[in-house]
Amino acid sequence: MKFFHLSDLHIGKQLNHYNLRDDQVFILNQLVEKSKELRPDAIVIAGDIYDKSIPSAEAVTVFDDFLTKISQIQPSIPVFIIAGNHDSAERLDFANSILAKHNVFIAGLPPRDKDEYLKKITLNDEFGEVDFYLLPFLKPGYVRHLFEDGDITSYDDAVRKIIERENIDYSKRNVLVSHQFFTFKDLKPETCDSEISLISVGGLDNVDVSAVKDFDYVALGHIHGPQKIGYEHIRYTGTLLKYSVSERNHNKSFTVVNMQNKNDAIKIEQIKLKPLRDLRLEEGLLEEIISRATKDNKDDYVSVILKDEIDQYKPKDQLENVYSHILEIRVDNSRTRSKLEASSEEIEIDNPVTAFEKFFFDMQSREMTEDERKAIVEIVSHIKESE
Ligand SMILES: [Mn+2]
Q1: What's the 336 CA to ligand 1 centre distance in angstroms?
Q2: Neighbours of ion ligand 1 (CB under 5 A)
């Protein structure tokens, strides 16, 4: 049994003000080609199909085209899809029973009634059956009503109890597809800027991998850098594209999982993909950065940090003359650094109202009105009371 494990397509995502449609189409087309070449027995997509719960018409078309191209491959390759925290479970579930007839299996919503269970698809190979369990992204509140009062107090409880009630036969080969924030004891997966907003402060949404370690493979989504968590067979596959500057050194790829007998070691391979445009950080003097532009890299997404001590003539225009996709330009020299230090000193003014007045003036270039000042005084005294 050989299957592809993908996740976090985030179709419809924008990078700063750039529309990533062409980049996403380009990378999905490579996946179609890889599917033709490697002929997987299934393609698993572990959540965050779309970037937004209400995807644009353009985003839906991109995903529709991808599924159509996959479904045209013969013999047909089943596709297993779960909702991630970015997806709308109900919208993703649309027409899912019709799509199942075409070998596309979608699990948007977790079980709603006591007699409803996880979507399970069984595939066969020469070693027997493999059961794929599709666990859509869930919060404790989605499934609490399925259990006795007080059983579900955390994400960890919710996932554990939902899996327990499946009565899984662990003598068979089983694969779980999930989009929760899995951790291993005190160890958290390595995160990056494009997923940071999804993780609630305090880490209460984590699920310990002990809840799922008896599966033969756990195909995870949610974390954007490829990595295992706790065990070799429990893996985040990561995004297909770099979605933030913090991911500039990631090796974006997808996972190919090869399973044989129940007790044979699983073979796991990350296959690299080539993006339409890379995402890079360019740091240095303006002149150096400009001289590094080549025919092959000038259309990359570039984040620039200028180190010049002397102000350059229209640096933005000069950079835009050579690089076509600039994400941002920052200046890091002794002047900007001392400005930062100075402003951090000024924040040490012991009266927060005065500190805010100064900040307000820096931002707005005007003094606060009486009403604005009153509002701040009220907020500050409110905070002081609650401390
Ligand atoms: Mn994601």
Answers
A1: 34
A2: 8, 48
- Compute CA 101 distance to the chain's CA centroid, rounded to the nearest angstrom: 29
Which burial class, exposed, middle or buried, applies to 337 when counting CB atoms under 10 A from its CB (0-12, 13-18, 19+)?
A: exposed
In angstroms, what is the span from residue 137 Cα to ligand 1's centroid?
A: 11
Report the separation in Å between the CA atom of 10 and the middle of ligand 1, taken as the mean of its atom positions: 7
Q: Which are the contacts of 78, defined by CB distance < 8 A and separation ≥ 6?
A: 41, 42, 43, 103, 104, 105, 121, 123
Q: State the amino acid at position 202 in one-letter form.
A: G
Task: Tell me the CATH architecture of domain 2-272.
Answer: 4-Layer Sandwich (3.60)
CA of 379 to the centre of ligand 1 (A): 35
Domain boundaries, the chain: 2-272, 279-335, 347-386
Cα(196) to ligand 1 centroid in Å equals 9
Q: What is the DSSP string of 232-251?
A: EEEEE---SS--SGGGTT--
Residue 225 CA to ligand 1 centre (angstroms):
10
pLDDT at 258 over 80: yes
- Tell me how far the alpha carbon of residue 253 lies from the centroid of ligand 1, in angstroms: 15
- Measured distance CA(255)–CA(235) in Å, rounded: 9
How far apart are the C-alpha atoms of 135 and 307, rounded to whole Å?
48
Instruction: Kindly state the DSSP code that residue 187 receives in the 8-state scheme.
Output: B
Say how many Å lie between the CA of residue 48 and the centre of ligand 1: 5
Q: Which two tokens stand for residue 254?
A: 């997808």
pLDDT digits (tens, 9 = 90+) for 242-251: 999 999 998 8
Q: How much distance in Å is there from the Cα of 125 to the middle of ligand 1?
A: 32
The pTM of the whole model exceeds 0.70: yes
- Note the pLDDT tens digit of each residue in 84-110: 999 999 999 998 999 999 999 999 999
